[in-house]
Amino acid sequence: MKRLWFAFALLAGCSGGGDDAADRNEALPAGQTAAGGSLTTLTGLYEGGETRTPNQMCIVEGTGEARFGLVVWGSNLHSCSGSGTVARAGDTLRLSMAGDEACTIEAKISGNTVTLPASVPDGCAYYCGARATLTGAVLTQKGNSVEDAGRAKDLVGDPLCIGS
User: Fold this and answer.
1) How many CB atoms within 10 Å of residue 81?
2) How far apart are CA 57 and CA 49, in angstroms?
3) Of 14, 40, 77, 99, which is most buried with the most CB atoms under 10 A?
4) Residue 159 φ then ψ, to 5°
5) Where are the beta strands (DSSP E) in 49-128?
6) pTM of the model
7) At residue 77, what are phi and psi to the nearest 5 degrees?
8) What are the pLDDT digits (tens) for 109-143?
9) d(CA 130, CA 127)
10) Over the stretch 29-53, which tens digit does the pLDDT of each residue have?
11) Helical H segments across the chain, by residue range
């Protein structure tokens, strides 16, 4: 199997078209990245922030819309949390919260890291406690399987992406 991937990598590197899998939005097998180290599968666990209470996001892609769950911690254990659908367009993730207030966040992908923007729509405040914000959170993919996504925990320690 390793020989097959090695041969595939050689062929992909020799294509010369400058049109890699990430540009065509084709998925590579789990654990593989396209040229430049960009995410090729959104599915997985993303973490950032403090190690004691890390910010976490999980994404599960499937046959329908991709789903996400997100917890971002602020001061004094205030937090933001929500879940919904996610769509990718190049190096942008569009995270649309499913809840009582409209909140769609346009995050940026760089390598295997997702960065939330410096400002978010006003409706996103609904998903946050008084001392927390969704702005500027940086989350790095720590695993790229559904099982990894299942390790993300909600505010009370339950799996964040169960049923996604």
Assistant:
1) 20
2) 12
3) 40
4) -55, 130
5) 55-60, 66-73, 79-89, 92-97, 104-110, 113-115
6) 0.75
7) 60, 20
8) 999 999 999 999 999 999 999 999 999 999 999 99
9) 10
10) 444 343 345 678 899 999 999 878 8
11) 2-13, 21-24, 146-149
Q: How many Å apart are CA 47 and CA 26, to the nearest integer?
A: 24
144 Cβ contact list (under 8 Å, min separation 6):
30, 31, 41, 43, 44
Domain ranges of the chain: 2-37, 44-149
CA distance 56 to 53: 9
> What is d(CA 126, CA 114) in angstroms, rounded to the nearest whole number?
22
Q: Which amino acid is at 17?
A: G
**Burial class, 12, CB count within 10 angstroms (exposed 0-12 / middle 13-18 / buried 19+):** middle
| Neighbour count for residue 6 (Cβ, 10 Å) | 10
At 41, the amino acid letter reads T
What is the distance between the alpha carbons of residues 29 and 5, in angstroms, rounded to a whole number? 10
Bridge-based pairing of strands 92-97 and 104-110 is: antiparallel
